[in-house]
Design goal:
The chain is mainly alpha-helical. It contains 10 helices and 5 strands, in the order H-H-E-H-H-E-E-H-H-H-H-H-E-E-H. The mean pLDDT is 90.
């Protein structure tokens, strides 16, 4: 009975249902907001925080990064996943055990996010900074300075490493660390769920 009541609560109200509907993967507040605004363009940060606070009190949503101040990551609890599946027919997998603080750090910077996603080519080979910039320039407008800074930040965070030196101009090649690979694999799992 409680599951049905929570599912009815989640589905009522256009703003609340839009916010909870998009929570199929671990997301930061700004990511939730931008995705929810596709369903309801009038949602504000104030609405988002009110819904997240209410959902947390009801045990539907939890913060995976409670120790950090900005860029917290939210995801449905085990009960919340069943509630959202009942309310919206979303099948949601349990979150894997990764460093959610590092994931939050990734989410907090757009350039870091895009550089991290395009670190390797389609065949899984490490790339040079200029190759990453070329892959990002046209779609996301990321410059070489932004790419270089993001690479440095990701290296200091322990998510990427220098994987070697290219034959062409002896440039550094960047690849994922073990921690970075686990986060990237998690991202791939959730990307495959969306389609």
């Amino acid at each position: 009975m409680k599951l049905e009541m929570l599912a009815a609560w989640a589905a009522e109200g256009s703003q609340k249902s839009a916010i909870l509907r998009v929570m199929r993967q671990p997301l930061s507040g700004s990511q939730i907001l931008s995705r929810a605004q596709k369903y309801n363009s009038r949602i504000t940060y104030r609405d988002l925080w009110a819904v997240l606070q209410a959902a947390t009190k009801k045990g539907v949503v939890e913060c995976l990064t409670p120790d950090i101040k900005n860029g917290k990551i939210y995801f449905p609890t085990s009960i919340g996943r069943r509630v959202l599946q009942t309310a919206f027919s979303n099948s949601i997998y349990s979150p894997p055990e990764i460093d959610w603080n590092a994931y939050a750090y990734l989410c907090a910077g757009k350039a870091r996010w895009w550089v991290f996603l395009h670190l390797e080519d389609r065949d899984g080979h490490p790339r040079r900074a200029t190759d990453i910039k070329k892959a990002l320039r046209e779609v996301h407008g990321v410059t070489l300075n932004q790419t270089s800074r993001a690479l440095l930040e990701l290296e200091l965070c322990g998510l990427i490493k220098i994987a070697g030196v290219s034959k062409k101009r002896a440039s550094r090649l960047f690849g994922y660390t073990i921690q970075g690979k686990s986060i990237r694999n998690t991202m791939r799992i959730y990307e495959s769920q969306l389609y």
